[in-house]
Amino acid sequence: MKLRRSRPWAVAVATVVLLYLTGPGFDLWPLAFIALSPLIGWARTSPQSGRLAVYVSFFAYYLVSLQGLRYAHPLMVFPLLALAAYLAIYPLLFVVLLRRWSGIGDPRPGVDATKPRPEIWGTEIWATWRARVPTSLVAAVLWVGGEWVRNYFATGISVLMLGHSLAGMSTPTIIQMVDLFGTYGVSFVLVLTSVAAADGWRWCVQRRAAIPGSHPANRWVGLCASWQTSLPIALVAVVAAHFYGVVTLAYPTRDSGATWMLIGRDEQTEYQQDLSREQEIFSEFARQSISAVSRSATPVDVVVWPESMLSGGQPWYIAEEDLAVPAELAGEGQGPSLSVAQMRRIITQSQDDFTRRNQDLQAAMSSGTPFPPPAIIGGCGVVRYGAGAKQYSGVVLVDPDGHVRETYAKNHLVMFGEYIPLIKSIPWLKDFVPPGLGLDAGVGPTVFEVGKLRALPNLCIESAVERIAVNHMRTLWKRDPSSLPQVIVTLTNDAWFDNSA
Fold it and tell me: What is the C-alpha R_g of the chain?
């Protein structure tokens, strides 16, 4: 009896362990093809509810997998707990809905809970559908449907989708289908293979128990019969995805003729740090860039710095046509006030200082080389003063002459990390919000032209919400199909996550 009660926990823990082993640090991606099989096999056959086991196990999985988020700021521990608690809801819903489809429910007095119950859905029509629609397809739709919902609900988050577990493939053929279906397609295939694996294991055990000592060939016949639906579906999906990937990877490419240098450092970074620390980090990145570019045997067209590192305590300020002096700078009887003209002069002076700093850096990078200075793409704070002041986490494109030519403002912000829901509707909450956690969201994409290359900038979490880059490309396609970017440059910063996987 105790063994039966512990089975849901064993199944749930086995599933999350398999998923965890496919992730960073282990990269045992072949396990992804069977990762969900313990959970699926149990959900389709066991009368036990096991909801607590599923929820707690997946809560622990997301908590451990995403624990690096807590390094950015001490208060991020609470959003981490909230995020893990939220994400764990989706596997639980998957199990509940899959059990309902399979006709498995919690036992009731006088009912044999081990037998499917068509009346759970309220009509025998569902029993007919269950007989006609392969369970593997239903399971795949339920899992991927959950991923789709969480990618949009409450601003969306795509992190740790099932399809991401194949990112470490040595020959990444199967994941090439993302250009057709997104990560959803890869997740769909992995659910199909997990159902086939669960069917194979279940029927193999049943066959061995039913015919002890029977010839292996007889057991193999029974095993193949049990897979007559789920195995062919899984094989067709995997083979089709593989051959599509082979064709895609064989697509001819050509040299861009451009050299990009990506600069990264192991610098401790926090949301709250003083100006001297920001300047220190900038100086270290500058020294590394100068050393790397000056030692390059080929001309470097552009140097790319991570998110936030190009600011160095000096954001890029922009004065709009409708500039109004913010209340805190207008005096309001509590000190000297600034006029609009004075505000514009201050912003112009700041822009000049920013440009001179860029020029000094670029001159140092090209000093002693026969090559021209490189352009710079860097993560940098962007502040726009119009009718109101708006502060963005941004990316700037600096020409080889040191001038800022284009800016991109991050469209998708980190919930709790860069904005707090309803904060503008509850003003008194602002007193509890640390500096740097109240940013504005940009709107739409920007294309950076660097030499002959067009690049689409993407910032940090926007890589974990894949629809952001997809929607950017769709927007640009509608504007002008002939000027689509040829490369996506993602600026993030490992320093936020310390040494976590």
Answer: 28
Q: Does residue 375 surpass a pLDDT of 70?
A: yes
460 assigned to active site? yes
Is 328 catalytic? The answer is: no
Residues 147, 278, 410, 462: which is the catalytic one?
Answer: 410
Q: Confirm if 370 and 382 have CB atoms less than 8 A apart.
A: no
Interatomic CA distance for residues 18 and 33, integer angstroms:
10
Is residue 319's pLDDT more than 60? yes
Q: How many CB atoms lie within 10 A of CB 402?
A: 19
390 assigned to active site: no
Structure tokens at 268: 């401790």
Q: How far is the C-alpha of 327 from the C-alpha of 388, rounded, in Å?
A: 9
The yes-or-no verdict on residue 460 having pLDDT over 60 is yes
Write out pLDDT tens, residues 238-254.
999 999 999 999 999 88
List CB contacts of 418: < 8 A, sequence separation 6 or more.
Answer: 393, 410, 437, 438, 439
> Active-site residue among 147, 460, 462, 466?
460
Residue 94 pLDDT greater than 60, yes or no: yes
For residue 24, give both structure tokens.
């960073």
